[in-house]
What does this fold into?
Amino acid sequence: MYGKKVKLRAIFILSIFFSSILIIFLVFKSLEENVVYFKSPTEIKNLIELTPKKIRVGGMVKEKSIIINQSEVNFVITDFKNELIVNYSGSVPNLFEEGKGVVAEGFLKDRNFLTAVKILAKHDENYMPPEVKEALKESN
It folds into this structure.
């Protein structure tokens, strides 16, 4: 019914189509496993069920809440409605301080406590690293 050339083209087009679908599926599947959702302390308080997955919590570091021990840092993240206590072992970023924005990535112990594995300090769009400021001062 169809010639050999038409059959080969159809097979080629179908194989490209199914290969594309497979590649897109694999990309989305790998992205799904690596996504870490960002939540505020209020959203965590309102969670129906706590999951053992890694989670990111963002907000402001509460004034006078940072307690630095020998190998760990304890502080409180607030969104000015609710608060979450964070425990972190390791060194904190240079921008980390009271009253500044922070994102803590880790695992929830309960609705009031997070054990962080990573701390990300946030800055505004006007931020300029100290090294760049010094270089600009020297060039003037």
User: Anything to note?
Assistant: The domain at 38-121 is CATH 2.40.50.140 (OB fold (Dihydrolipoamide Acetyltransferase, E2P)). The mean pLDDT is 84. The first helix runs from residue 4 to 34. The helical segments are 4-34, 41-45, 130-139.
